[in-house]
Design a protein that fits this description.
The structure holds two protein chains of two kinds.
Chain A (H helix, E strand, L loop, with lengths): L8 H9 L5 H12 L7 E3 L2 H17 L9 E5 L26 H8 L3 E6 L33 H8 L5 E6 L5 H6 L3 E4 L19 E6 L2 H11 L30 E5 L9 H16 L3 E5 L7 H16 L18 H12 L2 H14 L5 H21 L5 E5 L15 H6 L5 H6 L3 E8 L5 E8 L4 H14 L12
Parallel strand pairs in A: 2-3, 7-8, 7-9
Antiparallel strand pairs in A: 1-3, 4-6, 5-6, 5-10, 9-11, 10-11
Chain B lengths: L4 E2 L2 E12 L38 H13 L3 E2 L2 E2 L1 E5 L9 E5 L5 E2 L2 E6 L2 E14 L3 E3 L8 E3 L6 E7 L6 H17 L12 E10 L9 E6 L2 H20 L7 E6 L4 E7 L9 E2 L6 E2 L2 H10 L4 H12 L3 H7 L3 H14 L2 H19 L10 H12 L5 H14 L3 H8 L7 H14 L1 H8 L7 H10 L6 H12 L1
Parallel strand pairs in B: 14-15
Antiparallel strand pairs in B: 1-2, 2-12, 2-13, 3-7, 4-18, 5-6, 5-17, 7-9, 8-9, 9-12, 10-11, 13-14, 15-16
Helix pairs in contact in B: 2-3, 5-6, 7-8, 7-9, 9-10, 10-11, 12-14, 12-15
Classes of the chains: A alpha/beta, B alpha+beta.
Chain lengths: ~475, ~475
Amino acid sequence: MADLHNKSVAQLAAMLKHKEVSAVEVATRFLARIGGNPHTAFLDVNSEVTLAQARASDEKIAAGTAGPLEGVPIAHKDIFVTKDFATTAGSKILKNYRSPFDATVVARLRDAGMVTLGKLNCDEFAMGSANENSAYGAVTNPWDTTRIPGGSSGGSAAAVAARLTPAATGTDTGGSIRQPAAFCGITGIKPTYGRASRYGMVAFASSLDQAGPMARSAEDCALLLSAMCGPDLDRDSTSLNVAKEDFSRTLTQPLQGLRVGIPNEFFGQGLADDVRSAIDTALKQLQAQGAKLVPIALPRTELSIPVYYIIAPAEASSNLSRFDGVKFGHRAKDFADLASMYEKTRSEAFGEEAKRRIMIGAYVLSHGYYDAYYLQAQKIRRMIADDFQQAFDQCDMIAGPVAPTTAWKLGDKSDDPLANYLADIFTLPASLAGLPGMSLPVGFGESGMPVGMQLIGNYLQETKLLNVAHQYQLHTDHHLKTPGGVA
Amino acid sequence: MNSPLVHGYEVVIGFETHAQLSTKSKIFSRASTAFGAEPNTQACAVDLALPGTLPVMNKGAVERAIELGLALGSHIAERSVFARKNYFYPDLPKGYQISQFEIPVVQGGAVSFFLGDEKKTVRLVRAHLEEDAGKSLHEDFIGQSGIDLNRAGTPLLEIVTEPDMRSSEEAVAYAKELHKIVTWIGICDGNMQEGSFRCDANVSVRKPGAPLGTRREIKNLNSFKFMQQAIDYEVRWQIEQIEDGRAIQQATVLFNPDTGETRAMRTKEDAADYRYFPDPDLPPLVISREWVERVRSEMAELPRVMAERFVTQYGLPEYDASTLTQSKAMAAYFEETVKACRQAKLASNWIMGELSRRMNADGLGIEHLPVKAAQLGALIQRIADDTISNNAAKQVFDALWNDNGEVDAIIEAKGLKQMNDTGALEAIIDEVLAANPKNVEEFKAGNAKALNGLVGPIMKASKGKANPAQVNALLLKKLG
């Protein structure tokens, strides 16, 4: 089966179920493709573990006890802790770290029958928009290897785009699923904050971090999301007490009468022409399928950048305190006393961006600055959430660009953190509000790089986003395009 | 009332007490809180702060905080917030302690107690929930420190008072009363040696009427004795400093029981900035009225409520009621004794008298007495129904205490039964009267004391079995 690696999650699940292919065959194919670690997408693979899981899946299929996604491979962003693979979070400070337990998301996908291919590269502690902040090397974009894949789930996006895995998990704190999905021409969804358990996710910014699936189509994302989500109240206090859902159940609904809100602020001066034109075309397509475009306002869109870059570093500075060389992870070799052990350990093993955010976070939380920065940011955060609620009075969902441009060249912004931060402008508002957001490919820009369209829904309205994306994908083929260099 | 002055200075004391809550598992994890296990055997992934772990609130800890609030008449916050207190230390696995900062769960309230005859009330500022840190072990490792994280994540309630106390005696009385309350309602085992009840005292001095002086905080006072010594030393030290013209620097100090002195660990200048902020891993703690009422309905009767009941239900004097409610076990012993004899005042007298004397002499706790409440009740019943005299009862009590046995059997075996046969007694009385004509005459002449000279020989002749009240009555009748 020459094109096995081009099959979708849904197709593979059906083929495995009908024993047209074995889980071992599927796993072997993908392990072979991962072999030379193209795009530096993977950080850890272990073919023994993977094949053992695949054999177990084949036995379950034979015994008739298969899970819904039995035998379908997946790879996990290295932010999720795993028993069977190392977990580094892209950081030197966790080099070779092995967790004694699996993240809830990982365990649930295993329960659904999925076979783990390995761990995927990402920005250190998920801090970045280009995947250039990984301690284990930058990931390249399969559409143009001189370009970045986006971040922080850059390894996940590149691996799916390069057909190294049919699906991957990602995490999204300020756009880390949506932006790399857009830059690599795949589909990804960040559910409502609290839908997927954060237990076993190495924390970056606790009030924003959210796991989600990345695959080639909305249909696949719906299947994966159904397996991932559900309450985890005994392990994660921010987990929503909302019953498990079948996110595929409304995929086939027509778009007739759907009101799509178009925020004026997402189409201003900073938006590149090629992205604007691809989004315009996609919106016209939605109109052609029966949707109605409604102009809306999200007046505090610009403020989401300073608000996010206060709150996220504040939480990160505290979350990263546990990496102190005492209990696990890297410890400096030579030190004079406790203070120098801390200092050397953390100086040696944290990357520049992690250090920058620790410094910013410690600063905005410090005595005398807390009110002016952290508290003020929290107030504006609530206003941003309120703005969305007003918008949802007029529309069923919101559409716009994921990022102002397509993927840039490696190194282009790596010396300019501010430029990186500004590029997050369209993904930050939904993150701050805790709303579900997704990215789907809607065409290509001037440089031949993919353009992603963002859909933002109200709380718990993931089915609506997936429905719209799926209906769009039924009428278009952007999501089926393969990068030139990928066979 | 005036505060007692020390060399013309008024002493001002406030307390911060860390009460370890009596939950089986930790405040944010499912690991056990049991004391004394091998190092690091009771620390789970959450306690070790392994990547990906998250805190989940132990409802039992919240309920214990609610109980304390109800016991002290505090406001139970409908919504309180957990915050992170950020600092680096090897026995603090996350690099921050989860505590409550701006909005604590228990707000206000008061602790009332007697200092001698005077009723004192110390107002509470707040009580908040937080997790304990682990322990650093510096002794056993040459050039290195060991870290034991068994204690990490143990639930604590930090109880903070206003600076309402004016002497070391009052401070100790407050601490004892608080200790009584937390152990009474069962939210803390009160074991001070194991660190389950640790007090920090904020001490300052001032001239009467002057604004509050600069305080120094004495940390980790883990016995009532050291508490008083430490405060007394600190007060003297502060007064000396001021008298010598030196200003007091705000500082944290430790008391050394060996030298009896306090010494500064750190001053305000090196105070850390803890960068408190609401913990994003824990939503605000919401406590509904229904929850509070359920806890209230399941709570044990409070000591002061029980004391009031002892006065109304048993007709006890307030002093008795307050003494008998010093501990739950004592109060239970009393009520069980009364149940067996229906003689509340006699029971109270015996418990506060003979029983307490023997308890102290043998160094026994009320839970481990050789004489059970039912036995004491049976004994008291025999006093009340005139079977034995009070003196004989003491012999029976001794026998019960030393050799156990059954009350009636002991009375029988020792031949302690009172002579209640009027005929036999009258015969003895007549004999004694005939033998002591002088006393009879003196009594008739108006010397009431002469009667005593007759009672003695009668009791002797009856071998101590005569009922003294009956002897008196018969004598008066015969001489009247």
